[in-house]
Amino acid sequence: MRTLLSLGRLSLLAFVSVGAMSAAVSEPALISFYSCQRCSAPPTMDGKLDDPCWQALPAMEDFFQYWCPTPKPAPLKTSAKLCYDGAGLYLGIRMFEEQLDKVKAAVTNRDNPVTWTDDCVEIIIDPQNCGTGYLKFVTNLNAIRYDEKCVNTSLDSSWNVEGWKVATAKGQGEWFIECFLPWSDLDATPADGDIWSFDLVRYGYSTGKFRGVTWSLGGSGAAPQKLGYLGFGATVPPSEGTLATLARVAEPTKGPRMRLLLPGLVFERDGAAWTRSDVREWQKQCLAEATEAVNAAESAANAIPKPDEKAKLLAKLAELRAKLAEFAAQAQSADAQSPSLACQLRQSLRAMRKDADELKWDGMLLSLALSE
């Protein structure tokens, strides 16, 4: 009998290893995407963001915590709008700030390499989608300009272009940046339907500590392969042609499996084709998978013959069920349809599923060990 139990334990351990490997399958690469629309009249570069061209544009506001590989809430609320015409690209950026009087703006000279140590934004663009280089434009509240070029991961801070313009302004609990990047500075001009790699990064120091956000998860000058994308023209909701172009552009750096989240919509590519689903249905599926894992763990815990050991696992499961109820409530909120919050909820549910799986294996192993 003992031999049979030992063999059973070994089989279960092998099963646990396979289950752990299955649960560890990586998520598809997350794609940040913004539809950059053509404007009929460009904004005036005064930093006020009150021009007619800004009013009807969608907001880029799904930011993530900077330098973090998993989706975590952005510590700085930020919003941006982008448009373009035959002359160049226009950006209107809104930095929400509770301590506006403590915004750090020490740099006052052009081409200062420590501009990033001020409250600032970094605009990172790669028209070639190479994943190893980019053009970067940095500015602060003083509208100081610092530009830099990266080619094959090699930085060139001596690179300068003079056509780009910046204007800033302060509001109530927020400050603004208006920026113009001419196509001549970018050495490329997009056609409608083109897609370029892009990221917008913000640094803040008003609390005395560094805080950073990035529009594209994990994207930065140090990780150009993780930049998001600008689609020029009417590209949202994406057509089949837009999705095909995105797959072609993104696959060399993101791999064949990718996930594109837009307000209310989820597009996923398994390496061959895109599928589309509603964000709420997608979240229901995530909740169902986590619930199934918790239920399986509870069944394993209830099978433990020793009451005190059973009680320990059931207590941990009660905590998971309480979190599951919180996540279910979050999924019903209107905010949960935003891409960043949908990603964070997905990440939380995956972590919960992993915890529940571990409790299930613990319960199964305890049941086997205590049955001897």
At the first level of CATH, the class of the largest domain is Mainly Beta
Number of structurally distinct domains: 2
Number of strand elements: 17
Q: The biggest beta sheet, please?
A: 13 strands, mixed
Structural class: alpha+beta
Rounded mean pLDDT is 92
Distance between the termini: 8 Å
Strand content: 25-35%
User: In the CATH classification, which architecture of the largest domain applies?
Assistant: Sandwich
| H and E order | HEEHEEEEEEEEEHEEEHEEEHHH
Task: Give your account of this protein's structure.
This protein is α+β, with helices and mostly antiparallel strands and 372 residues long. It has two domains: 30-272, Immunoglobulin-like; 279-370. The chain is built from seven helices and 17 strands. It has helices at residues 2-23, 52-55, 183-186, 240-254, 279-302, 307-332, 339-370; strands at 29-31, 33-38, 64-65, 78-84, 88-96, 120-126, 134-140, 146-151, 154-156, 165-170, 174-182, 195-204, 211-214, 228-232, 257-262, 265-270, 274-278. The strands form two sheets. Strands 2, 3, 4, 5, 6, 7, 8, 9, 10, 11, 12, 13 and 14 form a 13-stranded mixed sheet that branches. Strand 12 and strand 13 form a beta hairpin. Helix 1 (2-23) packs antiparallel against helix 7, helix 5 packs parallel to helix 7 and helix 6 (307-332) packs antiparallel against helix 7 (339-370). The radius of gyration is 25 Å and the shape is elongated. It starts with a helix and ends with a helix. The model is unreliable at 1-18 (pLDDT under 50).
